[in-house]
Amino acid sequence: MRNKLMAICMVVSVMLAFQVRILAHHGNASYDTTKADTTLTGIVTDWIVANPHSFLKMDVKNDDGSVSHWVIESSAASANQRGNVRLTRNSLKPGDKVTVTMMVAKNGQPVGRIHQLVLPDGRLVVTDLP
Amino acid sequence: MRNVGAYVVLVLAVLMSPSIMCAQTASQSGPIKHEGIPPICQGAGRFNCAQPPVKGQAVDTEPTTDAWGRTARRREAAKDSKPGPAPRHDISGIWRVTGVDEFGFNGPGIFGAGAMPSDGWPDHEPPYTKEGLEAYHSHRPVWGIDAVAPAQTNDPVKACDPQGFPRDDLHGFGTTQILQTATQVVMLYGGGYKDWRVIWTDGRALPKDPDPTWTGYSTGKWVDDTTFVVETNGTDDRTWLDNAGRPHTDEMRVEERFHRVDQDTLELTVIINDPKYYTKPWAGLDKQPFKLQPADSSIGEGRCVPSEMALYDSLISKPANPEK
Questions:
Q1: Which of B56-60, B115-119, B239-243, B302-306 comes out lowest in average pLDDT?
Q2: What are phi and psi of A77, to 5 degrees?
Q3: How many Cβ atoms are within 10 Å of B160's Cβ, its own excluded?
Q4: Which residues on A lie below 8 Å from B106 (Cβ)?
Q5: Residue B46 domain-assigned (yes or no)
Q6: Nearest-CA neighbor of A28 among B174, B319, B118, B147?
Q7: Do B58 and A29 touch (CB under 8 A)?
Q8: Confidence category of residue B286, pLDDT binned at 50, 70, 90
Q9: Using the beta-carbon criterion (under 8 Å), do B47 and A2 form an inter-chain contact?
Q10: Would you report the helix, strand and coil content of chain B in percent, each value rounded to 5?
């Protein structure tokens, strides 16, 4: 089988809709990578620093006035750095206004994974590549 | 890819694809390196691999700061640095994997063994025996060409089982501290699972048919001034070789070659020898380089915490499960 394939120049276009970042225990197969990242601004309701992923819960007001309760995972603290802006347990608290750029769940649930986050003080946190 | 029929379908899809890449550079030693974007990254909805960094994204050479305020991570040497010669019989220090892999990510291991990533190139498929391929297909990894969603995986690390050896090398190296004593080399892995193992250098032989452990039994010796060779046996077969779910038996033997290139650079080669699952030995890492980090920097904690994994499941993987 390998010999057959070695004789063929090919690119495999299997429709596996997932993207890749970071750690071993999960990939990003749940997230939609067919479109660009989604950027939303919301109000923090909880910020849970955990290992290896932290979790940001935020409420986003939709155009129709309804509110979506988002849960967005973040990489480990050591991976969240750019220009020495570290994401720590003190970085966010309930009531803070944040803007998050993320990939979102394929199944339409308000679940995502942070790529960039603008802190309440305007500093930019960027998730490093693994 | 489990049968020829699937391959035929894929070939037809490829021939109709607007982006056919077939450049290949064959290396006569080690796994074949390919030019171009790996198959797993092709097409809409595929792994969003070698993308340009997000604007403002931390770049490979940018140092970061640990909780102590010390420089915690430097992947490449400063441009004007001139590292001194390699010290004799010394691989100690804090080492950080360097460079980017074929997917544009910092360091190997996410898609499986760095020298044999599960990226869809056929010659990056390990040389399985029939039994080895069956064992591989029983695994549902979350990375690589056969990845599934997190809610569907049976990766043992999902339950916070240890990565074990050699997955600690093939994925968990990240930033790792190596200590040397008169009779041991000790690996303190910082790549996310906070594992450690001891390599005995007192001349003892490997045990015969030992009870398997998660990191096995290791002995090492210097073969010249700058090359340290390690042999390992007795690894628990519940662990996966790598992130892509490659399997191994408890009869596997692993050889590591640590080569201190200069003051700042260490190269690691990892050879897997497991005749029951693989028809011949193959390199999981092939001279993977690491850079020496500042001696006062911290590795940082990466752990698998069962309670936090349960939180992850309840908040993220179950709600986002594509099969819902």
A1: B56-60
A2: -55, -40
A3: 17
A4: 128-130
A5: no
A6: B147
A7: no
A8: very high
A9: no
A10: 15, 25, 60
- Which residue segment(s) compose the domain that B204 sits in? 64-308
Question: Would you say residue B318 lies in a domain?
Answer: no
Total domains in chain A come to 1
Please tell me the pTM assigned to this model: 0.79
**B191 to chain A: closest CA residue:** A23
Highest mean pLDDT among B159-168, B198-207, B288-297: B198-207
Which of the 8 DSSP states describes residue B223? S
CA of A92: how far to CAs of A81, A83, A96, A104, B70, in Å? 15, 18, 7, 21, 23
Cross-chain Cβ contact A53/B125 below 8 Å: no
- Report the pLDDT value the prediction gives residue B9, as an integer from 0 to 100: 41
What is the number of structural domains in chain B?
1
d(CA B252, CA B98): 28
Domain that holds residue A22: 2-126
Q: Chain B: residue nearest A123 by CA?
A: B56
Question: What are B18-50's pLDDT values in tens digits?
Answer: 333 333 332 333 456 677 677 777 765 456 554
Distance CA A105, CA A40 (A): 14
Q: Do A26 and B103 touch (CB under 8 A)?
A: no
The answer to whether position B20 is within a domain reads no
**In contact, B47 and A17? CB cutoff 8 Å:** no
Spatial distance between the Cα atoms of B324 and B164, rounded to a whole number of angstroms: 33
Q: Inform me whether the C-beta atom of residue B143 falls under 8 Å from chain A C-beta atoms.
A: yes
A82 vs B contacts (CB less than 8 Å): 56-58, 62
Among chain A residues, the shortest Cα distance to B240 is held by A24
Burial of B114 (0-12, 13-18, 19+ CB in 10 A): buried
What one-character DSSP code corresponds to residue B189?
E
Answer whether residue B231 is part of any domain: yes
Note whether B192 contacts A31, CB cutoff 8 Å. Answer: no
Tell me how many degrees the CA angle A58-A59-A61 measures, rounded to the nearest 5: 145
Question: What count of other Cβ atoms lies within 10 Å of the Cβ of residue B109?
Answer: 31
| Pick from B7, B13, B321: CB nearest A30 | B321
